[in-house]
């Protein structure tokens, strides 16, 4: 990292290193999907960025085959719950068995005029079921998971994609003045899951 990032990487004094080392209370992990990584030695050294610093190309596809199912072919999110379990166990074994919170985990639908389809979000329900099963398996393997947060309660503004992607378990009618909220199937599933 020091060789690739060079002067953009902050430097710490010995006192700062000892102050920071091992000082976290827990790790917060955002997990949506997994990617394949391939070495890319051809990064332009005159255009450094956090995207190219790793000198790697990442993709959910390898040889034209996705790591898991996608909502649609051009989606960045491929459903791969096994990756969550793999990550949890890797962190346990390589980072001194910390307390972990899953701070984001979620599934996207692309906005459409078919509100009924968006409300009957069976793909999201399946996504959460599969990921929570793998998270439970991680816990059975000794990973110290203390909390889980689904992304997100409400459809929201998603970075550069704006309102074109919907991650919420509650549908928001962005065209109405009242921003009507309607619980999706996934919201009802979570309610049942948490009450049993």
What does it look like?
- The chain has 196 residues and is α/β, with parallel strands linked by helices.
- The protein has one domain: Glycosidases (TIM Barrel, Alpha-Beta Barrel).
- 31% of the residues lie in helices and 19% in strands.
- The protein is built from six helices and eleven strands.
- It has helices at residues 2-5, 14-20, 81-94, 115-119, 122-140, 185-195, and strands at residues 27-30, 36-39, 56-59, 61-62, 65-66, 99-104, 109-110, 144-148, 165-166, 170-172, 181-183.
- A three-stranded parallel beta sheet has the order 1-6-8, with helices on one face. It has a two-stranded antiparallel sheet with strand order 2-3. A two-stranded antiparallel sheet has the order 4-5.
- α3 packs parallel to α5 (122-140) and α5 (122-140) runs parallel beside α6.
- It starts with a helix and ends with a helix.
- The model has no long low-confidence stretch (mean pLDDT 95).
Q: Estimate the strand proportion.
A: 15-25%
Question: What structural category do the secondary elements indicate?
Answer: alpha/beta
- Stretches with pLDDT under 50, minimum 5 residues: none
Count of DSSP strands? 11
CATH topology: TIM Barrel
- SSE order, one letter for each helix or strand: HHEEEEEHEEHHEEEEH
């Amino acid at each position: 990292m020091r060789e690739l990032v060079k002067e953009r990487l902050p430097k710490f004094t010995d006192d700062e290193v000892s102050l920071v080392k091992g000082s976290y209370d827990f790790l917060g992990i955002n997990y949506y999907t997994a990617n394949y990584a391939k070495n890319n030695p051809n990064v332009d050294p005159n255009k450094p960025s956090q995207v190219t610093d790793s000198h790697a190309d990442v993709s959910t596809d390898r040889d034209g085959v996705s790591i898991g199912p996608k909502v649609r072919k051009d989606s960045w999110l491929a459903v791969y719950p096994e990756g969550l379990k793999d990550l949890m166990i890797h962190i346990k074994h390589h980072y001194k068995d910390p307390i972990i919170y899953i701070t984001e985990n979620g599934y996207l639908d692309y906005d459409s005029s078919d509100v009924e389809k968006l409300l009957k979000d069976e793909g999201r329900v399946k996504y959460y079921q599969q990921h929570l099963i793998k998270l439970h398996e991680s816990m059975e393997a000794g990973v110290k998971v203390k909390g889980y947060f689904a992304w997100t309660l409400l459809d929201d503004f998603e970075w550069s994609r704006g309102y074109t992607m919907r991650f919420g378990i509650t549908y928001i009618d962005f065209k109405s003045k009242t921003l009507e909220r309607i619980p999706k199937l996934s919201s009802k599933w979570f309610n049942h899951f948490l009450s049993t």
